[in-house]
Write a structure and sequence with these properties.
alpha/beta, globular, 7-stranded mixed sheet, single chain, 4-stranded antiparallel sheet, Rossmann fold
């Protein structure tokens, strides 16, 4: 595939096995992941110097130090990063995130397979499933959705602004997907591409210039494709929004033609194998978050293979359940997700749909 420079818009071509170039510029490719962040010139130069010197692990360590601009957690430690790179074939996903010093983000990723926002995103895509061949996910994190899509034969590209997240996805979660690191607020290097499914899950609300990002996502969506965006916080939620939020009118102005759901309806559909009922943009303080699609068909029952692991999948007990009791990863995780976790209620009938048993990566 051909990417375009986020600086000049020119096609990027491989000038070495570890770099992409256009006239007057070069960008590193580490572990097969192009790094195209426009305000990280120093880090780009350091990575290229290591790569050109035949030291790919040093380039990898350098890129693993990078983080979101809003990051306020602990800084990485070079000794720990070097340990992670040395032991990457054997260390667990959770230990890898500890060595990356992900802090509370590590809990978010480690237990995302059982949190309600993730499950609502699965239900949203399955309810409007059109057998996509190619998919793109913006702010893909460590590849949870790419793993599910890839198992159904979908060719996926995941993009994030943090190299370490894409690297974790490639090595621990969804190795068959392609990954790309770039800034959503800069020109997109994939602007020429079109996808049957375009998604942004539990992330759109904190992206810069949301109107421009929405336009970019629409431009990537094929004429008969589906754009899926989940978990948009309601600023009027009676218990207080748990992240950057907008009013119903503001979200509607950004997505006036979307099919819109109260996230709870998507969870109900997943647990009960039912068809979620759209609510539209209702001004309701009981709604914590909305999810939406543009394009596609009317919703169908969530009873196929995306939201529920297929036959033969190795399932393990939900790691947050022990002898019927719930052990929360942290008070913060409990406060944000606990109320929506259907598996926390032992009366929920279907153990797989409720996620009392779960499909975790082998090296979780």
């Amino acid at each position: 595939m051909t990417y375009r420079s986020p600086l000049s818009g020119r096609p990027l071509v491989a000038d070495t096995p570890h770099s992409l170039a256009a006239p007057g510029e070069r960008w590193p490719v580490v572990d097969g992941i192009p790094y195209l962040r426009v305000e990280s010139e120093g880090l780009v130069a350091v990575a290229l110097d290591h790569l050109d010197a035949g030291c790919p692990d040093d380039a990898l360590v350098a890129l693993l130090t990078d983080q979101d601009s809003w990051w306020t957690g602990p800084a990485t430690d070079l000794r720990e990063l070097k340990q992670l790179v040395r032991e990457r074939e054997t260390v667990s996903l959770r230990d890898a995130m500890a060595l990356l010093r992900f802090g509370p983000v590590a809990d978010y990723f480690a237990y995302r397979w059982v949190d309600p926002t993730y499950l609502a995103g699965l239900a949203l895509m399955e309810a409007h499933w059109r057998r996509p061949v190619r998919a793109f996910e913006l702010a893909c994190g460590i590849g949870h959705y790419l793993r599910d899509l890839g198992r159904l034969g979908v060719a996926c590209i995941g993009a994030d602004v943090v190299f370490a997240k894409c690297w974790l996805a490639k090595h621990w979660v969804a190795p068959d997907a392609d990954y790309l690191v770039f800034d959503a607020g800069a020109p997109w290097p994939i602007a020429d591409m079109r996808f049957d499914l375009v998604a942004c899950h539990d992330a759109f609300y904190f992206l810069p210039d949301q109107a421009a990002v929405a336009a970019q996502l629409r431009a990537l969506t094929a004429d008969d494709g589906v754009l899926a965006i989940s978990h948009l916080h309601n600023s009027a939620f009676r218990e207080g929004a748990k992240g950057p939020a907008r009013s119903v009118d503001e979200w509607q102005a950004l997505f006036p033609d979307a099919t819109v759901y109260d996230e709870r309806a998507l969870l109900d559909a997943l647990v009960g194998a039912g068809t979620p009922v759209p609510t539209g943009w209702v001004d309701d303080p009981a709604v914590e978050a909305w999810s939406l699609v543009e394009g596609g068909d009317a919703p169908r029952a969530v009873d196929r293979g995306l939201a529920v692991p297929g036959a033969g999948t190795t399932l393990r007990d939900n790691p947050l359940l022990a002898e019927g009791a719930v052990t929360w990863p942290s008070n913060r995780w409990r406060d944000e997700y606990g109320a929506g976790c259907r598996w926390a209620d032992p009366a929920t009938a279907d153990a797989v749909r409720a996620r009392r048993v779960v499909d975790l990566p082998e090296r979780w």
